[in-house]
Amino acid sequence: MHAAALHACQASPWSHPAQALEEELGSTQACLQENEEYSRVLAEHLDSVRLEIGHTQARLGARTRELESESHLRQLAARESGRLRSDIARLGARRAEAGQHATSLQTEVFKAGEKLAQFKLVQNWNQVGVAGPGAQPRGLS
Length: 141
Prior knowledge:
By secondary structure, the protein is an all-alpha fold. It is built from 2 helices and no strands.
């Protein structure tokens, strides 16, 4: 209770003891009721504060768990990114290797085609020489 209310609750001295005692009793009872009401209000306020503290602690716990989950998810994402970068590098190397292999095969096909053309040309010359000068070469018509 604040100082002015306490001052009002103090009894003033009277000249008649019975009347003064009755007035002091009434004043003291009024002060007692005020103090009891004030005490009740403070107790209700304390209950509200305790309840609010409980809610705040619950929110803090939830936020802490949320932050821990986000941290865990960031770690998982970082690991996944590293794995994907590794896969990209590995696949890039395999792609380059496959490109080199394809180029090698194309070169072999081209060389084999040239050999075949050369072989056909030799065969045609051989047939022209065997058949005579006026013979039609086979396979060129």
